[in-house]
Amino acid sequence: MENKTLVSLIHKYGSPLYVYDAEKIISQYNRITNAFSTVKNLKLNYAVKANSNINILKLFKKLKSGIDTVSIQEVQLGIKAGFSPENIIFTPNGVSLEEIEEVSKLGVQINIDNISILEQFGNKHPNIPVCVRINPHIMAGGNHKISVGHIDSKFGISVHQVPLIMRVVKNTGMHINGLHMHTGSDILDIDVFIAATEILFNTATEFKNLDFIDFGSGFKVPYKEGDISTNIEELGEKLSKRFNLFCKEYGKKLTLMFEPGKFLVSESGVFLANVNVVKQTTSNVFASVDSGFNHLIRPMMYDSYHHIHNISNPKGRERYYSVVGYICETDTFGSNRRISEIKEGDILCFNNAGAYCFSMASNYNSRYKPAEVLLYNGKDYLIRKQETFDDLLKNQVIINLN
Hints:
By secondary structure, this protein is of the alpha/beta class.
């Protein structure tokens, strides 16, 4: 991921461009497994929604990871990538009973997060084991849009409704084989996360035939120099000890699950874009690139920070720029950023572009989605072609209006 390499890739594959470093993905995966090495049964399920390119999925299969999915299409992608059904967990929100039933036919682990579907599914399929998603009523996460475990969240069944879950289980005779929670993304305070796990441990004592407990994820990665991130090693030490003790009390060696997405792939990716125009106004200097929130929406949607640097002139005199896109709305990637002097034609690099970037891209303004490249074992591989005009029309049905 050196500047020289990235410049050569954008010349080879075109601009804008996503580039992912397999080595970083592997190191992040190993970092979590090492942090929880004292847990006998540890299972990581990569969150497909973070980056669903099938080659990224194949890399995780090679690492012996499972996958966490939120749609039947992600399940199908996982199977296409070679994952066996038992290594796939389906954790949707607000989907129909029909979709859950279709997924269950594929043999994957079902995770249900509302009483209504739990009861309907249990009545029709009491012999299919089901995991239940619990809402612990814990506020965590770096942005309200990605805080999903609080009392007003649409996700999960309230921890205070456990007696109602037990009633459904008794009436249907269904088998609950797992408990799940996810408090939110960008977790900084380990103690808050540990407090949420205690709620799940207490809940787990109500269920006598569990096989696993899934603690979600949301581990924070650094976005800028000196940024705070989740201390995964400290969390591993504290939670492993508590989990092993709980298993002893429960009388069974359960599997400890996580479903990391951003933690595994965010830092692996960069987004490259060419500078179209450098525009001086009365109060600002804009560097406008050949992209916009159609390709990278996180700064506009979540106020997320992506470090931006000029890889065409990395040692130039630093000046202040607002980096913007070419969309016909305000699409600011970064305001008043200190960046090496930018000229038209330079290439800017956006860090932390491996998670929730391409996967949230669109064709807004009828722009093409960019190409994706994977660096693996010292070689670059095109893993998605840049779209063409034909792709924009592919599923449109042209009718005769005469």
